[in-house]
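Task 17 of the worksheet. Students: predict the tertiary structure of the chain below and write it out as structure tokens. Keep your answer in the requested format; marks are given for formatting as well as content.
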Amino acid sequence: MIRKIPAAAPLGAALLLGAALSACQKGGGEHDHGAAQGPPADAAHGKVVFTTTCSTCHGQDGMGVKGLGRDLVTSEFVTESSDEELLKMVNTGRPADDPLNTTKIAMPPKGGNAALSEQDVRDAIAYLRTIHKPS
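Model answer:
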């Protein structure tokens, strides 16, 4: 005997699947920067990391040091980059001859502080997001 499937069954299944997928997505905030799963970033600790490592070139306020590091507060690069992209860039650095390096001053991996853990860098990025003012 052949059992007939009601015509509404495929539509119901599609709606159910859509609802399930929507529930699985993370909540979209105003600024979703693509943070990876793992321990949450700690912006307060990130401020310490930024002050002790990044501020040498980017200034205590993140506004940059002429001839060294760019202004990160209004940086279009920071605005357009996900947290993961920033993490990768900080971890690998940026050579002076990189076309995206407008200062032509090399940024060493981890800002020259090899002791920084991945979590330290994530925390610094979280702090950067608190001071960043997209233009």
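Marker's comment: The mean pLDDT is 81. DSSP finds five helices and no strands in the chain.
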